[in-house]
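As a warm-up, study this chain.
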Amino acid sequence: MADSQKVLEILKAMSLRIEQEKDYLTELDQPIGDSDHGINMARGFAAVEQKLPTLVGKDIGTILKSVGMTLVSTVGGASGPLYGTAFMKAGTACAGKTELNMTDFLSALDAAVAGVQSRGHAEPEEATMIDAMIPAVKAMKSAAAEGASNRAALDAGAAAALAGAKHTKGLIATKGRACYVGERGIGHQDPGATSFTFLLETIAEAF
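Now compare it with the structure written out below.
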């Protein structure tokens, strides 16, 4: 599915995508957060992109852990620790690997989801990135079990993530900054669920 060099290429593409979507993500964050999700994510992934040349030749686990540490130290707010934890846990799941198949990728995502849930104490239906992550993983596992190609499985995951992100419009947030607005948050899409969707779409497009 992907070797270390491909992972580096995808991470660079992620940085570009987040920069392109920076204003939109910040716009989503304005009614329910600190109006900085897009700005913070763009800063973090710009730092990741700068680090990529130092990771050439490293195994995938090392690459992902480095990305996670970079995001923790450069992304402000709750997103830094959450995304940082996701990448670091995925890195641990990929320790020593120089190639990933779909099973490896799904195991890494399982670890990422568990890390985010542990760090953020979030459950489904609470209007967080979890509402995009869990349906995406479930959809990819189902597609892979049915014999779908890697690209088809990734597309299914990206579609499920997008549906999950849109679903957050109807939820009352009970975690993070958005919980302070209560029912006034209904009708607003969660920025974290949206940025995760963009990252998964970027991975799918790489294949």
